[in-house]
Amino acid sequence: MEKNNEEVLLKIDHLCQYFKMGKSELKAVDDVSFDIKKGEVFGLVGESGCGKTTTGRSIIKLYNVTSGNIYFKGVRIGAGIRSYKNAIEKARAEYNEKKTAGLSAEEDARLKKELDAFVGEQKAAIKAAKYDQKNCDKEYAQQRVAQVKEKYEPLLAKAAPAEKEKLAKEYKNELRKAKNTKLVTQIQMIFQDPIASLDPRLTVREIIAEGLIIQGERDKEVIDRKVYEMLEMVGLVREHASRYPHEFSGGQRQRIGVARSIIMNPDMIIADEPVSALDVSVQAQVINLLNELREKFGLTILFVAHDLSVVKYFSDRIGVMYFGKLVEMAPSDELFKNPLHPYTKSLLSAIPLPDPIYEKQRVRIVYNPLAEHDYTVDKPSLREIKPGHFIQCNEAEYKKYMEELK
């Protein structure tokens, strides 16, 4: 279902997430950029190990990003500094190269001045990135405290003596919650493996209520009421609150994970393959549940999955990842109608259909990047091939794709 809202809720800008592997480095996510508009479902697909989950975990700051920026509601919540350091190294190397080639004193002084100015800019950018990474939640909490004070202080001044005590208690409670709040908790994650992501020593009530307690909610009645409300919303019953995760089936455990994420009243949910561990009938139940919650709360969802038929049904736009890179991005119907990147074609050719005649004739397309692309000279970048349809390609491939579209 297409949303008309153009407000960008989440913006990923040249995100890189590298992990050290001894002396080498694993580029789990490499220069990925996309944005998600408020109220839409953005599907992220690709084979196992292509960096989908790492992208989601980087967004909610489970990892400190290597390079690039993550903006949520216009605020930079994640920032890496590698690109700035690399730019400084490159500029110094270029200056030294020119110097060794021989420069006049005037030219040398000019280039040195330019280099110093550039290095100063990059160092300022590194400082700003570190500050935003560290202080975005603190600044958001200060804003929330100011809002709570603005709301309650006039009410307390006007309140009758009988109401004042109750209002003061409510004000104190809201103030404590505002001080403990974090901007990043407005993005919640439903994890892939429902049993590994639930603490086996906690009851369902404790699991679902944990976020509220961390945020500073002390009222047991409020916590119980919200927990029961969430359980009923995800199709479980109040009696389940006193049980432990091992007493539930896979589908029920995934529903507990959903309840735990929506109790925080988030603006966005990252659903990391929420149905891949479940059988087909339960998959449909969980997808329908997410659809209902999306309508009810106006949620924005980053939907990570393998199953392309589920992604097509559920997503407004789809991004295709391969080896840490975003290779194609388009609205859902457009991507299935006009897949252009050879890897996307390969993925779509792997979808089985419940039609034996079609299955006999179905031809699997094999993607071999070494045979498909020559990036030795002309490097690829993400280019817009038609409105809203982006593809990772170099200049020669771009011309070829434009011809294909004609």
Explain what the structure shows:
The chain is of the alpha/beta class and 406 residues long. The chain has three domains: 1-73 and 267-381, P-loop containing nucleotide triphosphate hydrolases (Rossmann fold, 3-Layer(aba) Sandwich), CATH 3.40.50.300; 82-181, no CATH class; 198-266, no CATH class. It is 50% helix and 20% strand. It contains 14 helices and twelve strands. An eight-stranded mixed β-sheet has the order 6-7-8-3-9-10-12-11, with helices on both faces. Strands 2-1-4-5 form a four-stranded antiparallel β-sheet. β4 and β5 form a beta hairpin. The radius of gyration is 25 Å and the shape is flat. It starts with 7 loop residues before the first strand and ends with a helix. The model has no long low-confidence stretch (mean pLDDT 89).
Count, helices: 14
CATH architectural group of the largest domain: 3-Layer(aba) Sandwich
Query: Biggest β-sheet, characterized?
Result: 8 strands, mixed
Helix and strand content put the structural class at: alpha/beta
What is the overall shape?
A: flat
